[in-house]
Design brief:
Helix content is 33%, strand content 11%. Strands 1-2-3-5-7-8-9-10 form an eight-stranded mixed sheet, covered by helices on one side. Strands 4-6 form a two-stranded parallel ribbon. Strand 1 and strand 2 form a beta hairpin.
């Protein structure tokens, strides 16, 4: 993985894209988090973060000019709060090929009043019941969702459903799931299925939380899934970034 530095930003491709916007290309660096974008001097309409390893959509400085963000094929599981304070004029957000799972996860986007185009294709969230109508209801400013125009009929359907008694119950359940969902939380279920005690599960979760890279997290989870439970010494190796070989 590569830390996003001012030097990388300054040396990356910058050009006028086909829609005549000034674009910064930060594709494919394996960047784990958004940072140091103050080095752009707020000189770009579009920033392309595709094919990186970003897990949370946040970390932006105040970028008044920014209109479009491309985050295709990252690992985003969370959207930061109060994005409107940093990217108030964002119009297009492409999150195709990420890991957003719950309908409640899109709640923070509600404050981006100028957001009119959103793509969540190839995220687990798209398989949820009422997915499209819920997003249209929660983000009424959208004109394009997953590159399909939002129709007036869909807007009416969404409003009718989610203002009804049944819709209010659905919204309440969505809110509960969003609050209880923890990225990587499946590790707990996997561990219990292997017969681990609560103390052993706590140690494994601590090892995951202290891992120095996403690769270490994923490798530890694969070990659990395969039925091989690393001992405390092995987990200490993970915490110290040593990466034990269990194959």
């Amino acid at each position: 993985m590569v830390k996003l530095t001012a030097e990388i930003i300054q040396n990356s491709m910058q050009y006028i894209n086909p829609v005549k916007d000034r674009e910064l290309d930060l594709r494919g660096y394996r960047i784990p988090e958004v940072e140091n974008l103050g080095a752009t001097g707020d000189q770009f309409d579009t920033i392309d973060f595709s094919d990186n390893d970003v897990r949370k959509l946040d970390g932006f400085p105040y970028l008044k000019r920014l209109k479009c963000l491309l985050f295709n094929n990252n690992r985003i599981v969370r959207i930061g709060e109060h994005l409107e304070e940093y990217i108030p004029n964002l119009e297009s957000l492409v999150l195709t090929g990420n890991h957003l799972e719950e309908l409640g996860d899109i709640e923070p986007l509600n404050t981006l009043e100028k957001l009119t185009c959103l793509s969540l294709l190839h995220n687990p969230i798209t398989s949820k019941q009422h997915y499209r109508l819920y997003l249209i209801y929660k983000l009424p400013q959208l004109r394009l969702l997953d590159f399909r125009k939002v129709s007036m009929k869909e807007r009416e359907e969404a409003k009718t459903l989610f203002k009804s008694k049944k819709g209010k119950e659905i919204r309440k359940e969505i809110g509960k799931r969003a609050k209880t969902f923890v990225p990587g939380g499946a590790t707990n279920n996997i561990a219990k299925s292997k017969g681990l005690t609560d103390d052993e599960i706590a140690k494994i979760r601590d090892a995951i939380n202290k891992a120095s890279s996403l690769d270490e997290v994923e490798r530890l989870q694969k070990i659990l899934q395969s039925g091989q439970i690393p001992g405390q010494e092995s987990m200490n190796g993970y915490q110290n970034g040593q990466g034990m070989d269990y194959e």
